[in-house]
Design a protein that fits this description.
Layout: H1 17-29, H2 34-50, H3 56-78, H4 85-109
Helix pairs in contact: 1-2, 3-4
């Protein structure tokens, strides 16, 4: 059965012998042909360049929220009595509201 090639376009790249040897070695290490290895690498870089950058302040806020969740979880694991559940539920609700607010703000900036 004859194979049909979807990839009919060609691209030529000049490189040093050392680069070519390194790329072939890396491709073989991943179980890929050289062409597939290069294609995967270029496609990943292209996808990264289209990725939206996130505001560092937002990252800090989400990290702080994660820290609060860890503290609440630690507290829950230490004090498991039912009468203590109310403050925990309120804390989780505050975290939920804070995350929803951050997501809404991020959506507004897009």
């Amino acid at each position: 059965m004859a194979r049909t090639h979807e990839k009919a376009a060609r691209f030529e790249l000049r490189c040093s012998s050392a680069e070519l040897a390194a790329w072939r070695y890396a491709a073989a290490g991943h179980g890929l042909t050289l062409a597939a290895y290069i294609r995967v690498g270029l496609n990943q870089r292209s996808a990264l360049s289209r990725t939206k950058m996130v505001d560092p302040a937002l990252i800090r806020q989400v990290a702080a929220i994660g820290n609060n969740l860890n503290q609440i979880t630690h507290w829950c694991n230490t004090y498991k009595a039912k009468q203590d559940a109310r403050p925990v539920e309120e804390g989780i609700a505050r975290v939920h509201v804070a995350l929803a607010t951050l997501l809404a703000q991020q959506g507004d900036e897009s």
